[in-house]
């Protein structure tokens, strides 16, 4: 009887190895392939405008004055709470932040007071612009029109090969589509 038991155990082990082994290996291979594909997809995913702003502010706390996509990098200008200015570059693939220039002198003429006091931040302006005109934010720029005292954000939104300019009021957050350029060329000035 003891030898019969060994024969059954050996047969069961052979069945497991014959059927369970490759199935388990195939399942493990499929799981590895899924992880690799997921990692490759996330590596290819570009940092968007909001991600670039967040990365820049993490390195240099303050308020975003402007943000613009230029090929594989974002150029971000930040005004610190103390009025100091920094020009940062954020790699659109890795999210790494590099300081291009940081002024040691605070804003002598006080021209950034309105920006620092604005109720609507660049990040909020981007969200309002995309809500008004869906697409991808390509740039945001603070604008304080001294002629009539209005303060707003200029936000460029790209969608389907078109670039649309959206103005967002810095006090109310109201977004107004101000222009569109069908060929994607942003030479509206």
Key descriptive features of the protein:
189 residues, alpha+beta, 4 helices, flat
Commentary on this structure:
The chain is of the alpha+beta class. The protein contains 4 helices and 8 strands. An 8-stranded antiparallel beta sheet has the order 4-3-2-1-5-6-7-8. It is flat, with a radius of gyration of 27 Å. The C terminus is likely disordered.
The class by helix and strand makeup works out as alpha+beta
Report helical residue fraction.
25-40%
Secondary-structure element series: HHEEEEHHEEEE
Strand order in space, largest sheet: 4-3-2-1-5-6-7-8
What percent strand? 25-35%
Q: If helices are DSSP runs of H or I spanning 4 or more residues, what is the number of helices? A: 4
* Integer average pLDDT: 78
Major sheet characteristics: 8 strands, antiparallel
Detail the poorly predicted runs: 13-19, 21-31, 33-43, 184-189
Strand elements, count? 8
By oligomeric state, this entry counts as single chain
Q: In angstroms, what is the radius of gyration?
A: 27 Å
- Cα-to-Cα separation, first versus last residue: 95 Å
CA-based shape: flat
């Amino acid at each position: 009887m003891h030898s019969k038991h060994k024969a059954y155990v050996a047969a069961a082990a052979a069945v497991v190895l014959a059927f369970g082994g490759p199935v388990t290996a195939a399942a493990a291979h499929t799981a590895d392939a899924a992880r690799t594909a997921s990692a490759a997809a996330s590596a290819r995913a570009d940092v968007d405008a909001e991600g670039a702003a967040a990365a820049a502010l993490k390195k240099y706390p303050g308020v975003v004055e402007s943000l613009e996509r230029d090929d594989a990098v974002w150029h971000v200008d930040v005004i610190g709470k103390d009025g100091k200015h920094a020009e940062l570059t954020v790699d659109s693939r890795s999210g790494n932040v590099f300081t291009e220039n940081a002024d040691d002198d605070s804003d002598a003429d006080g021209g950034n007071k309105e920006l620092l006091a604005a109720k609507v931040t660049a990040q909020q302006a981007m969200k309002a612009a995309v809500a008004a005109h869906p697409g991808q934010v390509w740039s945001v720029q603070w604008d304080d029109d001294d002629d009539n005292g209005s303060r707003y954000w200029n936000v460029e939104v790209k969608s389907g090969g078109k670039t649309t300019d959206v103005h967002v009021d810095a006090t109310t957050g109201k977004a107004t589509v101000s222009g569109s350029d069908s060929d994607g060329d942003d030479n509206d000035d």
